[in-house]
Amino acid sequence: MQTAEIIKQLTVEGTEKNVKETRLIVKHSIGKVIRQGDIYIHMVNAGHPVGKQINEKQLVDGTSLGARHVLQGDAVIYETAYRPSWLNTKMFLGKAFDVKGRAVITHPEHAHVEFGAGFAGRCVVSHQIDIRTLQKVSD
Predict the structure, then answer these.
(1) What's the pTM?
(2) Burial class (CB in 10 A: 0-12, 13-18, 19+), 139
(3) Domain-wise residue ranges, the chain
(4) 103 φ, ψ (degrees, to nearest 5)
């Protein structure tokens, strides 16, 4: 089987699997962390500093299947944020986002993360690292 065929098959299987799997988050709790594959979503206070607003929906840079953490719905995404005080300095920071209403982070290989209608708040994304190499892990 060719690499492209394998990736296509994984995408289809992952999408079919995750249609039924969704983690529903209904309350913003500062300090709470949610994992979706190789990213961590940290809930921070509303005044936590962020970069400038951007118009893309993908939370992880890259074009690979593993980078397909996509935020859809009533949310605003910002460039790389500032590190929450509890986050280890070796962790790679990603984008930040504000959830204004119902929104969902989709991924073809992982359970979706849905922010319910009652959720409102700011989140910062960090990336899992390989502790041996201190490099960012990719799905």
Answers:
(1) 0.77
(2) buried
(3) 3-136
(4) -150, 160
CA distance 14 to 135: 25
- Sequence-distant (6+) residues with CB within 8 A of 40 are 33, 34, 91, 125, 126, 127, 128
Q: Which two tokens stand for residue 23?
A: 């983690």
Buried b (16+ CB within 10 A) or exposed e, 55-67: eeeebbeeeebbb
Average pLDDT of adjacent 10-residue blocks, the chain of 139 residues: 61 56 89 90 94 92 71 93 85 91 91 90 84 55
pLDDT of residue 37: 85
* Cβ neighbours for 84, distance < 8 A, ≥ 6 positions apart: 42, 44, 48, 124
pLDDT at 127: 85
